[in-house]
Model the fold of this input.
Amino acid sequence: MGFLDIDNATKSYGKVEVLHNVDISVQESEFLVLVGPSGCGKSTLLNMIAGLEEVTSGEIRIKGEVMNHVHPSKRNIAMVFQSYALYPNMTVGQNITFGLEMHGVPKSEREKAMDKVARLLQIENLLSRKPGQLSGGQRQRVAMGRALVREPDVFLFDEPLSNLDAKLRVDMRTEIKKLHQNLGTTIVYVTHDQIEAMTLSTRIAVMHNGYIQQLGTPNEIYNSPSNLFVATFMGSPSMNLLPVRINVDGNDVQAETTNGKGEAVSLTFHNPSASLKEFNGKSVTLGIRPESLTDLEGADQRSEHIETINNTVDVIEPAGSDTFVTTTMGNTECIGRMRADTNLKPGAETSFAINMEKVVVFDPETEMRIA
Done:
């Protein structure tokens, strides 16, 4: 049993089921991120935890107590919205302490709690201002302060950074990460941004079409995606996926494909699994992250199995700290991540290094990972 348990929860609107048998157990002090494209059900699930949406079937429990029919005000949760939801006629200080006042907390205690979170969020100089006098980042800090001051069991964040510009999003992401590390709070955070999911979370639930596609640590989600959707949704640039044919020769297993000139290429797997060997003679989908398709000098020196192929450079995209190089394998465009100072040009012939310890394989029919 976890601190927050979502047990076989479903949500239907009439005859249409939009959330299907969701099972997640969140431990105390964990930072769980619900991530997925628009319409996948992540905000609906968050609203069910908050009590803003009813649970059609299954249970939601906090500290072992069933919350299904408990009013939102009685759940001891705090929610930070995308729109900030501040009272425009109140000062920052009044916005932060309003919830405490409604719960009958004495003024002296309210002010003490307000001062504490104001110092934590570095907004002491804003307490007498109105929300209309604040920037987007300042408003978000105030919204977070209003949640923090209550010391709830669970914090819920509903895409809190989506209204901010790119630089401010990065800054606020760091602030939220610091808050979690310093306070050890239990957080459920909704976003469609996979970078936010990877950098903030202790665990990620990847959602699509109302189903949990995979639940795991950022490392598990990124390096061992359970299916093609997770593989392509998580990571930027996304994982390269190319068709290959499996050839088993004794203990060796190769992926047979072609380079950009149509020449045969054979890639030997590192420690192939028994399940992969069952696909002998069949076509599968090979997944390669861009950083596992690179130049010889940039290849992971710790890897015990690097395969090299000669191929043609199609496109060069300088990106500051990296250079992305597009090449063709198996009639499929693939993106490799190389060093910023690479001197490759389009049309050049070069050696590409593939880290076979990091490749994954999917069944093209079921779209599930084989190995």
In short: The two ends are 31 Å apart (CA to CA). The chain has nine helices and 21 strands.
